[in-house]
UniProtKB/TrEMBL annotation:
<protein>
    <submittedName>
        <fullName>MIT domain-containing protein 1 isoform X3</fullName>
    </submittedName>
</protein>
Amino acid sequence: MARSGREQEPDSTAAVTVLKRAVELDSEDRYQQALVCYQEGIDLLLQVLKGTKDDKKKCSLRKRISDYMDRAESIKKYLDQEKEDGKYHKQIKIEENATGFSYESLFQEYLNEAVTEVWIEDPYIRQTHQLYNFLRFCEMLIKRPCKVKTIHLLTSLDESGGRLQQCNGLREIKESLGDHGVLLELDYSSSIHDREIRVVFLLDIVIMI
């Protein structure tokens, strides 16, 4: 990939960070994650290009964008072929402080009109930011074209004094979803440790994420 040896302007710092991560993931054969980062990085570079006045810098940016777009397109074609050949297995590992992963980028390919139920196991839906992230995920399900009628959440109760906040937050989310015709079923377990999301389609096909 083409890279500039000159110091980057502040506006392009985010793009450089995301694209550097894309190249790292690409070199590790983690193509799905790399594609997500390439796409986000390209969008950021396009924003930088729009705000650039210098013709020489514009030319350089266009070349870099073109190179990254070519690589992203190659990865996409490769992944599409893997899917056609039945060899594709998607597992995304999101490391701490990683960027380039939004709910939409991670789940949009699964959320279509055939989706009816979503099962979530997450032991840590407790603190305010965790409740907020869960709410954002639920909002995404409502906004997408899928016809989700039931969301099942299995989590663990907060044993450190924040149980009231946790229960009140989940109750408010349940009521809000109910206003949109979606049922939130809540269950609690003290034995779960891992996170898992399952998407159920009309044809009873289950995708493990």
